[in-house]
Automatic annotation (TrEMBL):
<protein>
    <recommendedName>
        <fullName>Methyltransferase domain-containing protein</fullName>
    </recommendedName>
</protein>
<dbReference type="InterPro" id="IPR025714">
    <property type="entry name" value="Methyltranfer_dom"/>
</dbReference>
<dbReference type="InterPro" id="IPR029063">
    <property type="entry name" value="SAM-dependent_MTases_sf"/>
</dbReference>
<feature type="domain" description="Methyltransferase">
    <location>
        <begin position="116"/>
        <end position="275"/>
    </location>
</feature>
<dbReference type="Pfam" id="PF13679">
    <property type="entry name" value="Methyltransf_32"/>
</dbReference>
<dbReference type="InterPro" id="IPR052220">
    <property type="entry name" value="METTL25"/>
</dbReference>
Amino acid sequence: MALPEAFTAPFDYFREALSFLEKYAWIYQNANTCFLKAGTLEQMPQTFRNYFMQIDNNELNTFPLIHQSFNALTIPDLLEFREKVARLTPLHACREVEVEGEMNSSLTRARKLKSKKQHEIIKLTRKINENLNKEGIAAERYILVDFGAGLGYLGEMLYELNHNYRILGLETNSYRIRKATQRFEETKKISESRSSIIYIQHYITEESSAFIENAIMENFKYNYATAEKLKASTRLAIIGLHACADLTITSMKLFFKMPQVDHLIIMPCCYHKLEMCNTTFKFRNFPLSEAFKDALHNAQSHTVDNNYVRYLNRPFLRLACQQTSKRWSKCSSEYHRLHGIEMFLRALAEAIIDESETIHKFKSRKPLDLSLLKDFKEFRQLYELREKATNVTLRWRVEHEKRYKAFLRKYENCDGSKLAEGLICLQTTMQKMCENLVLYDRLYYMQELGQNLQMRIQVHYEKLLDEELSPRCHVLIAKKLQ
Ligand SMILES: C[S@@+](CC[C@H](N)C(=O)[O-])C[C@H]1O[C@@H](n2cnc3c(N)ncnc32)[C@H](O)[C@@H]1O
């Protein structure tokens, strides 16, 4: 979300991060269900394996807290790994955010919102309101275009806070639009609000500016085409809560494209769903900044295309939006023990089946002890075998049992479930570093674009939410300067 403290030039940061990812790509480059099939444990250095075989629960929980001192760790390879991650992760990414009590609002009272959603809406509503009213210039009206409005909670809460807001909620999902409109009309007492919040079904693209202008004109009777840019008494901002995948980037591009938009306040999520080209394996919107692209071209050992496949891939983006270290740091030893066993067995099942087969876990059957599972009959109680094409149940066969036993023999001198949990611990340690690369690249892209277009802007991220409650917790705040 920012340039880490150890760097002064974005290019140097990107270059060092890329060389780190190249070295440690084995930690994330395969889906966790496939880590045995892909031989990930064979790539784990022996020093790492030994460490995770004997680690106690306190150490396991503390290892990913990279900006906290960790005197228990003395093994050079692991110290180097942890220190490098810390160097590549800004301090601000690890700061604590206060969880507030319920805001006294009819919205949170009436909807019985879950604590996660309540926390998100309250915090973002306040942040938007604070930013839009910072300069003390009271806009006669402020039109807020909510990108990916979902069920419309954010817009409603904003209107409740400030009746000068007009909200245009754009959402591609027709069910959500229907629900948002219906619920809003049923519950609103203030008749004025009927014409103040409008939801429209629309799939937002980089070409959506004309659609947005027309929708504003039709619904709020305001013609932006004739308004004097940024000076109009009716102003315009793009907002969004968890605008997933490419939608946040679309909002950044429209912020530059639409002269009337003076603020962009948006929280991103679902990086792993970014659009990717199936032949080049490059993402349409990652990396975005020239500095990152230059660093990628400079990565020496392989061609740029190879780098996308090897370490700047979908598993990397999935790691960037995995659970964060805060929740991990509170897990009990029993949780880690069971989680490790589940993960090892799931990967084992994946490793012994044919390409045409798939497995399905029987609900409610929990593996409690790995030693019991030496018997293939016990393992069969946990997973059902199915044909991938038809989903028809199949019988486990002798070949499966042979492969199963071969895998268990391979790991008989170590506890595969502890190594599985060790692998997740390493991923959790890297998660914030990966997320920072994705998010800082976007921020720097906006700064580059602002310079190229000779447009003065201010842009930064703030950690807004409690990461344990809501792991995608950073808000991008951009504004055009007069
Ligand atoms: C993670 S949900 C968040 C919903 C809502 N903002 C909230 O926080 O409750 C993301 C929403 O964005 C919508 N969406 C994604 N891409 C979109 C696009 N290009 N145009 C319009 N809506 C989009 C999805 O349908 C989904 O409802």
